[in-house]
Amino acid sequence: MAGWHAVANPPKRAQRRSGGPGGTGGGVNLIRALIVLALFILATVLLLGAIHPTASTSSTGSPAVATPSTTTTTTRPVPTTTTIPAKRVPVMVANATTVPGAAAAVSAKLEPGGWDLLPPVDATAQLPTSSVYYLAGFEPEAKSIATTLGLPDSVVLPYTTSAPISSIGAAQVLVMVGPALADAAVAATTTTTAAH
Q1: Which of 56, 97, 115, 145 has a CA positioned 20 to 30 A from the CA of residue 38?
Q2: Where are the domains positioned within the chain?
Q3: 51: pLDDT confidence band, cut at 50, 70 and 90?
């Protein structure tokens, strides 16, 4: 074997002190490991204490038990009293009777209120009573219009496509004129016209 030769006495390496399995620094590494372990345990306890609080103990030394509160609070939605200015609420009046000019007469009755009145139209069917329909967000205005016309709040309804009208167009409130309202509005218009 070329390049190999027997060595009778190999050089001695520096002796390690026995301080543990790792030699010189074994004791220091053990201390470091214990410190890291202690910090880990402390951090875990603090974290779990924040996530899952434990029951506190009372002055007698027994655990205090947290009891849920028996107070019940009931909140009711506060009705919105804000109304949109009349001039910004498009209103359509539809004649649902055989009385000619009823929708125009009711529109004339609403005109002093400053409503944005669309041209009066005829309904596609006759109705036995008057109704005031509104689109979402316009119920207070519809109630105001019903009051102006002497109609009860019970006739103020959310608009549905079952209302007998071909199109509501840009209207936000739709007044469907029934026979009693038509007769009263036409009579009032006739009386007002005759007085002038």
Answers
A1: 56
A2: 22-51, 86-195
A3: confident
